[in-house]
Amino acid sequence: MDVKTLLHHLRKELESIGHEHESREILENLFKRDISYLYAHDDLVVDQNILKRLEEVIEARKLGQPLAYIFNKRSFYGRDFFVNSSVLIPRLETEFSIQELLKLPGNSFLELGIGSGCVSITMKLERPSLSVDGVDISDQAIQVAGLNAKKHLAQVHFFKSNLFEKVTPSYDLIYSNPPYIKTKDMDDLEDEVKKYEPHLALNGGEDGLDFYKKIIKNTPDYLNKTGYLVLEIGYNQKEEIFALLDAIHFTGKCIQDYGGHDRVIIATRRK
Ligand SMILES: C[S@@+](CC[C@H](N)C(=O)[O-])C[C@H]1O[C@@H](n2cnc3c(N)ncnc32)[C@H](O)[C@@H]1O
Fold first, then answer.
1. 105: annotated binding-site residue?
2. In this structure, which residue's CA is closest to atom 19 in ligand 1?
3. Which single residue of 48, 100, 120, 147 could bond 134 by disulfide (Cβ 3.0 to 4.6 Å)?
4. Any idea which positions bind substrate (predicted)?
């Protein structure tokens, strides 16, 4: 089979499952070439191993497996991160958190719930003087985040902890994108998310606020006097989270993402 025939075959298969926009990512991963190279050399005969892998990818995709898990890779803030089904696939919205975090002053950073490590590692690479610690309750997540730190030569300290449990105070910046889906809404998630992404990274308890409540309650003990608590939130959680912050005498602002949804809360002690 030549490249041209393969492109046609892949397009038809992806169209049948409504994922035609994914052909570029699949082709570039399979051939380890830019798509423009393939278009320019569409008469080349395709290697049997690539054909075999292509069929595996199509089958996995038909079952609903996310591309990021099929290729063990997702790009975040311009860098590739290793991912597998034990960590949340880094989201575009979370890149927005990075942009906000980078505007804040501070020398030390703590992330609660690192997943793939994409946020902590990006913070370290974008601001090398920052001292970066990150925790997760999942051993597998710590392992994946460690691999990513190594891959990007990022000097960060990742360790296992149930939120603040093993953390030593104190930090200038504390960040979390915790699980925040209400338990009763877990069933309504897209199949791709529900069947493949770790529920430990998604389920935020009965009202979706379990983690925010615990994080906010303990933040005064772990945040320096002029430090910032930065939280990624669900689009409809702003008011409830502001009420929790008010109870610890913190004040904050909420920033909307590019889609116009409330996304990031930045909070400090009330003066
Ligand atoms: C929504 S994911 C965010 C991952 C990563 N920060 C990102 O944005 O891609 C939440 C993470 O919190 C972790 N987590 C869940 N419960 C936790 C707990 N009690 N203590 C620490 N981490 C926890 C999960 O394992 C998961 O990696």
1. no
2. 162
3. 120
4. 177-180
